[in-house]
Amino acid sequence: MSSFEHDQFLREWTFSSRLLFYSIIAVTSFTLPVLILIMALIKPHRNSQYFPYMCGIIGGNFVLLSTVFTLVVSENVNVVYTYLPGFLICKFSFFLVNSASCFIHWTWVAMYSQRFIHVFFPLRSRRRLPRSTWNTLLLILVISCACQIWAPITITELNFSHGNFSQGTYCAEDPYFSSSSKIIVLVESTITFFIPFMLTVLADISVLVSKVPWQTPFKLISADDLRSNNRSDNMKIVSKLNLESAEKRRINAIKRCLISATLTLVLNLPNYVLQVVDEFYSLKDHREVSVRRIFLQADAAVYILYLLQFPLVPVNMYFLRQNITRSSRKLREKTTLQQEHSRSFQVLEQSNDQSRVPLSTTIPSPTSQT
């Protein structure tokens, strides 16, 4: 490498590092307070079936961003490194970030799967116990941590230097595990990202495309059949306007979730693909300087795209909260209307009883005629 090429690569590397540093600081400084605010806003909706999943997603994003923020700040101020060795920080931070990412992605899958069951098998979904959702989240958390156990084993702190000009450290796989690093990265990316997001998008598309549930929960009957007492099990009377309005709201909510999942997929995909390609073709340490420069620029670009997904999380949670609030309000209005109809019916029955003339005053008794 010539001196000119080295200086140019060093300038680009410094610029990319500072750009990523300020991007991480900006995104985390904005997103972390908003996540706390959203958590406070959804707190009144504890009885919603989506509340545990929303708490899990918000908590996972908070842990992930807090870890990245702490790691970036500690690398620049050298505060944490005075108390903990660098290799421990690398192992712990990689484990937390990867576990949180895996947990978030599979929590989305669990929430979308529950909605899938609720749409196609509504009677079966209503038999679920409320605490089973928390047990599901605990199981996802345990499996996510187990899948990322490779990070504390293989990740360590490595040194780099560019001649006599600069030197430093970075977190990467230990050279001892270089033979198996390709398999580890490929399997980890597949489990953490590709499979859960494919399942999420497929679940949304299946619910959106299918017009009729596989298992019809209720039988709709006409007023004539109701008057003739032709009743059946699972009978529910709904107006056509109410049915169309509910279907429209459901389709709009599913479309919004599908757009959100697709956008998150687009923002995550380049970063995961580039890391896998780099693992197989060693672009970061390629002997050609031009290849390393292209990888450096691409790595900074895809990581900024990856960061853009986090400000979207509060937006998604807000729209989910709006759906829950709207459903709760309609349920309260329906309950209030039913109670008012019940009270009106009771008052009408009482008035009819009071106005009804006793039988003895309308028909003379035999004793009164004698």
Topology:
Blueprint: H1 3-42, H2 51-77, H3 86-120, H4 122-125, H5 132-147, H6 150-154, E1 155-162, E2 166-173, H7 181-209, H8 223-227, H9 240-281, H10 289-307, H11 312-355, H12 359-362, H13 366-369
Antiparallel strand pairs: 1-2
Helix pairs in contact: 1-2, 1-10, 1-11, 2-3, 3-5, 3-7, 7-9, 9-10, 9-11
How would you sum up this structure, described in words?
Residues 32-317 form the G-protein coupled receptors family 1 profile domain. The protein has 370 residues and is mainly α. The protein has one domain: Rhopdopsin 7-helix transmembrane proteins, CATH 1.20.1070. The protein is built from 13 helices and two strands; from the N terminus they run ααααααββααααααα. The chain has a two-stranded antiparallel sheet with strand order 1-2. α3 (86-120) runs antiparallel to α5 (132-147). The relative contact order is 0.10. The model is unreliable at 212-218 and 355-370 (pLDDT under 50).
